[in-house]
Amino acid sequence: MKHYVGIDLGTTNSAICSYDGESVRIYKSPEGHSVTSSAIYIDRRSKYYGARAYRMAAFSPDNVAVLFKRLMGTGTPISIPAMNLVMTPEECSAEILKVLFGYLPEEMRNDPEIGTMITVPAAFNQMQRDATLSSAQIAGIGKVALMQEPVAAVMTVIKARKTDGIFLIYDLGGGTFDIALAESIAGRASLHQHGGITMCGGRDFDKALVDNVVKPWLLDNFDLPDNFTANSKYKPLLRLASWSSEQAKIELSAKEKAMIYLPETEVRIKDDSGNEIYFDIPIDRSMMNSIIEGRITETIQTTRELLENAGFTPHDIERIVFIGGPTQYKPIRDMVSFQLGIAPDITVDPMTVVAEGAAIFAESIDWSSAKRHRKSNRGSISGGKKLNVLFEYTARTSDVKASIVVQIQGSVLVGTQFQIDSMDTGWTSGRLELKSDTSVNVTLSKNGPNTFKVFVFDPQGGAISLENNSITITRTTATIDAIPASHSLGVEIREKLTGMGTRLSYLVHKGDPLPHKGKETFKAAEALRANGPGALVFKLYEGEIENPVDDNEFVGCFKITGTDFDEGIIQPGDDLIMDYEVSDSGKVSMSVSVPSIRGSFEQNRDFYSRMEGQIDFLSAGIRIAEDADLMMDRINDFSSKVDDADLDKARAKLLEAQQLSQLHGDPEACKQAAENIKDAKKLLAQVRKNNISDIRKNEYDFMVDFFVKCIQPIAKSSEINAFENMKKAAQRSIKQNSGDFENIIDQMKGMNWTILWRQDGFVVDRFNDFSQKEYLFLDKAKYIQLIKAGRAALAKDNIDDLRKIVSELYSIKITTETGRDMFLSANILRG
């Protein structure tokens, strides 16, 4: 019996299940738990994982790695200082995957045909998905694919409850929140829409308890400095506070009251007066509810937006299924159900539902295909050379019945008959006349493969041998149709050969059914010579923000460089034909062919270098604070022209981001700040859309004022005349429902940049600015080399060399900074 494996790789807890086509098995940890804590403990004598390691995170934090899932897809190091060990988030996740995989029976682990489905949150971006696959590769797990956590949950819900209807999956885990809207009909599910919040989960509730309850209590009861949280001496105290708060939070799931408690003997830390510190803090559900209310309200608002976007109201929804550890706290379920007006459903195990669904879904994958396509729902066998006939059938169904249909493709002697027998039950159809469109309904007696044999008889009753007379129909536990994309994904392109204006050419829109294959034709905007310098750059972004493009999430670049081909020149205007595929999980793969040079370029070499977008959130606070300040300037600028409530929401997000970015050494806080900035960008995009004419007028006034004050004195007369013409064109297009205005503004920006770039003083200023901002560059070695070379050029007053060096600095600068990057810009045209 073939087995399929599902793994829920969670922020705080992980689980593993297998499915044999009929039943699901949950594999427990050595302690007998159905989930394993995502924690690693290492000392000089031992290494262990799970619940024991998680507990040690409070008492021996320098020996433990936890919560690394939140940093997947980033460049943030995970440090275990007691062992002088630094790991990547992927390496840490790989350790947990190896532990989970080790729970499987040996024959299953060693089976080269076994397929493993690992789940990721719906809100995960491309870099996070890619990092998860890297973890599986590091762990040595053979055939692996990804699926989204809410989709996995839907599979289990359908298996557990066969009734039809529309339902919500409310998945609140340790680190992320996912929401999915699904409809079940006869064991087959359609996922209408899904989404989520990247940084929202039980971990945030623990932090809120510490900030709102534990810290004030400690300051009231012990001699501690007001800023003790920033003091390295009290770092262990904060870890213990978080652990104790989590235990009390869990206790509140079953009781009305609890204690955040830890005696002096376990805390073992003294305050500034030498007093032994302890925790003895009573809390109750009303306190807890008030602390988490804000975050739960965010999840409810996200759910309402999802329903609205899908065209549903709460009255259309039969039930809301709660999964994830925090939903075991009844007040959360009550609050969500009451606010949405939808009945709660707790029929599935909230801790293992995702892993179970992943194992069930794994059975539907064709693991022999490189891109892990789903198995076909249709099948057929041929009569071969002796009998020109097809028997077509439903190969996969969640129903207990299936059809086998005869299709005759040539002549058949009158009186020829056929018969279908079940190899599982002994049932037979009896002999039937062989003619086109004859349909036989067969009963599927069990989940998993059901085998039937087809027999054909000539008019005299003699058997006619068939090349293949075996039919296998799989009765699935649950089946899901196309999965909607959780993000839009597009390639940045120029609108015209001349000018700086760029837009996204979407490969897939949010909500489009996955998997999705497509072909797009673009054109080169610049020449590229074989073995020459430069590259054609396909910049990929996730998001729905129309303008500016780089307010979306930068994914990575597919580059065709001169060193990628040996002969010929790609000329401006040459076709660049992209074939792409977006999988069920949302992961994109692509290749580009260039007919003019007979070249084909695959993704596995140049595309999707995660280092171009990875951020080390341990050291990114300054950059993120600067990004938040720039966004705040944009919001204040908008506020001077329009009155929109979304501006206040965006401002609140940025104020919180500015505060969080100051918490140096706290990568979670820094990542939350970055998420807040993304949210502010989305809100700002909506404000722009709602007030487009006023915003355009503001942008126009700013651009004209900047040109007159800063550019005109150093511009050529021909450039001044060209700018005057652009002014007139921009004025005409302000109220037009097209992208002409944005194209003209981008051309103005391009002219301003060209003029400034000629000025030696501007180049020197840019170099001096970059030399003070190492945090804007991921490739530190290259950055140091360029700064050294730039200083040498400055010392020699060689501005031409300095200009080249500044160009190189632009090319390696982090591209997620707010503001337009003028180098490594898209040089691809709409086809």
Explain what this protein looks like in three dimensions:
- With 831 residues, the protein is α+β, with helices and mostly antiparallel strands.
- The chain folds into six domains: 1-159 and 347-364, 2-Layer Sandwich (Nucleotidyltransferase, domain 5); 162-345, ATPase, nucleotide binding domain (Nucleotidyltransferase, domain 5), CATH 3.30.420; 378-475, Immunoglobulins (Immunoglobulin-like), CATH 2.60.40.10; 485-612, Substrate Binding Domain Of DNAk, Chain A, domain 1, CATH 2.60.34; 615-690; 693-777 and 779-813, no CATH class.
- The chain contains 21 helices and 42 strands.
- Strands 1, 2, 3, 4, 10 and 11 form a six-stranded mixed beta sheet that branches.
- The radius of gyration is 31 Å and the shape is globular.
List its salient traits.
single chain, 831 residues, alpha+beta, Nucleotidyltransferase, domain 5, Immunoglobulin-like, six-stranded mixed sheet, 21 helices
Write the layout of secondary structure elements.
Layout: E1 4-8, E2 13-19, E3 24-27, E4 36-37, E5 39-42, E6 47-49, H1 51-59, E7 64-66, E8 78-80, E9 85-87, H2 89-101, H3 106-109, E10 115-120, H4 126-139, E11 143-148, H5 149-160, E12 165-172, E13 177-185, E14 188-197, H6 202-221, H7 235-251, E15 257-262, H8 264-267, E16 279-284, H9 285-310, E17 319-323, H10 330-340, E18 344-345, H11 353-362, E19 378-382, E20 389-394, E21 396-397, E22 401-408, E23 417-422, E24 432-433, E25 439-443, E26 448-457, E27 463-464, E28 470-475, E29 479-480, E30 483-484, E31 489-494, E32 502-508, E33 513-514, E34 516-524, E35 528-529, E36 535-542, E37 553-561, E38 569-570, E39 575-582, E40 588-594, E41 599-602, H12 603-606, H13 621-639, H14 645-660, H15 667-690, H16 692-711, H17 717-733, H18 740-758, H19 760-771, H20 780-795, H21 799-812, E42 828-830
Parallel strand pairs: 1-10, 10-11, 12-17, 14-29, 17-18, 21-28
Antiparallel strand pairs: 1-2, 2-3, 2-4, 5-6, 5-7, 8-9, 12-13, 13-14, 15-16, 19-20, 20-22, 22-25, 23-24, 23-26, 26-27, 26-28, 30-33, 31-32, 31-36, 34-39, 34-42, 35-38, 36-37, 39-40, 40-41
Helix pairs in contact: 1-7, 2-4, 5-11, 6-7, 6-9, 9-10, 13-14, 13-15, 14-15, 16-18, 17-18, 19-21, 20-21
